[in-house]
Request: fold
Amino acid sequence: MNARPAPVHVALVGCGAVAQLYYRPALETLEREGLLRLTAAHDPDPVALDTFGDSFPSARRLTRFPEVLAISPQLVIIASPPRYHPEQTIAALAAGIDVHCEKPLAPNLAEGERMVAAAVEAGRRLSIGMVRRHFAATRAIGRLISNGNLGPLGSIDCFEGTPFTWPVRSVDFLRPVAGAAGVLQDIGTHCLDLLTWWLGSPSAISYEDDAMGGVEANCRIELMFGDVPATVRLSRDWARPNRYVITGRDGWVAWTVNETNHFDYGISGTGYAGDLTLHEASVGVRRPTLGAVAGEFDEAFANQVRVLVDPASDARERVPGADALTTLGLIDRCYASRRQMPMPWMVPAWRAAT
Amino acid sequence: MTSGPIAVLGAGGFIGNRVVEMLHLDGAPVIPIVRQPSSLVLPGRFDLPARIANAFDENALTEAFAGCDTAVIAIAGDPRTLVGSVTPVYRAADSAGVRRLVHLSTASVHGQAPLAGTDETTPLSDRQQIPYNNAKVRAERQLLRCGESGSVETVLLRPGIVYGPRSNWTGGLADEMLAGAASLVEGGRGICNGIYVDNVVHAIRLALTAPGVDRQAYLIGDAETITWRDLYGPIAAGLGIDLDLLPTTSASAVSRRVPMVDRVRGSAAFRLVPAPVRAGMKAAYRTHRDARQKVPSGSAVPTVTLEKALLHTCAYKLPWSKARQDLGYQPLVSFADGCRRSVAWLDFAGYPVHGGSAA
Reply:
């Protein structure tokens, strides 16, 4: 019988909202399972550091990033603001440490390419936090598309948005300074990653947003995947149903954003559609049966790290940092070709009246 | 315009955001102030020197108001926030040397269905049936008390139903219509004391500089006298919904039913009933209510609150003659144009507007 491998020593960099809300419970779960041990957490803000660190009493609390490298963890999770990702990731890779970087990988494609090249040069693993690739629903939808179950696709329509309540700590997050993340870089990263994961690179793209010297709260992207048009509308401003609808000749799917194990599936020509809840497929039986309902969001989030620290996991589930480059390139193209969204009500009334 | 920067407290809200948009686009120096960084989403579309301050934190507010000549107070929230924030805001403005506060109150201080002849001279009551009204009355009184011992001038504006982009009277109503939850009381024939949001901002702009208006309150509204049916109409048309198919409720039925429910819920006897039994009673009530309203299966249940019943049966158009006389206020956007702008925003926001980009 093989001895259980020692837990992987992990350090977390950046104890802000994503660390506190998502990485903390994921790391607690994986620690309990004996798969990793959080040996250090870093944040320059002692309050944020203590808030996070209280869940991991044995982890060292470090306010300077070089101290993280000095203790030589096997894996560093970069959850700091995006403008710090390149510098911290490249330093960790150069120190011989594997890196898992929260999305977006980098503020732009050039920085992302530097990070991926640094991983190759150091011979270390660089992975990217794309939690939606770990949803049963997105995997199943991707397979329905690639298997041709929907037939030739006709249209793709994605709306994603809700008033922004993410507990950011600094006004810099929403100011036009280096590292500011508008709605395109934020949830657009998720959306474009899913579309390109399912469909490959688009052949054409056009983009408009509502920034007026600052950071966009709304944007609209038109893409062509071959001859299939796709519309993406993102908002941090106003809630509308968060739905992706993909329509093909033989069927359609409608997915509600962040539903990990559920989507609607319509079958053309039958007049029927169903709401599909995904289960684990049972193994070791003669006939296929339903196992447990597929994992919820917290399990998907933990799975991103699990596949890095559990030798028994399926390595194909890891999302390599290089996969983020396609999306970074698209975002660069969007900003480079940016047009102003039409907002006919915006002109002040006293100007319109004169 | 004023001689120095204009602070906008509550800049992340529907009206506060529009104040920022319009004043900034007009070239005025604007400083958005919000409670938390995430509330800067809309002001953040401009490159503005935003500041963070909790409306209860006098020290933080004093820092946020530093260097500002005037301030617009557009705080939203529960009754505790509406009233409790008044004193710290006033004191902070006083400490920071702000010359004038323009405080956004509401026409609801006169009730949702004011009596004929109501104007700014009509005495206010803080014993109304709607808690929001009482909070706004108390906030006004508290602000005037603060002004007795401070040096900051105060101007109170009382808009009615503020509609337009990002208003719940526009987007929220569209949501209700799409969910099958919209309804009218008495056919929506009551008067809607509406005002397009840009007209509110226009009044704010005038109130920042008008001379001799310290401690004055002003009702403000659109030029036209409209009904609730008029307000619903363009939104329904934009969404391709037949206004005549919306359910309509009798005001007398609502006014009898809603207070009874509230009375039962609030009674000491009801609180003594064991929780499982209470839950059963609530479920039974919901079943009874749903059956009475005869809503098609799968649709949301139209909700007719006391507030809505009062609003939809209003029989009086509030005057804004005092604002015209003292501030020079005259609505700049007509009701028809306000509706066109509102429907254009619905299209922008992703609603299925007929002929729009999301349809």
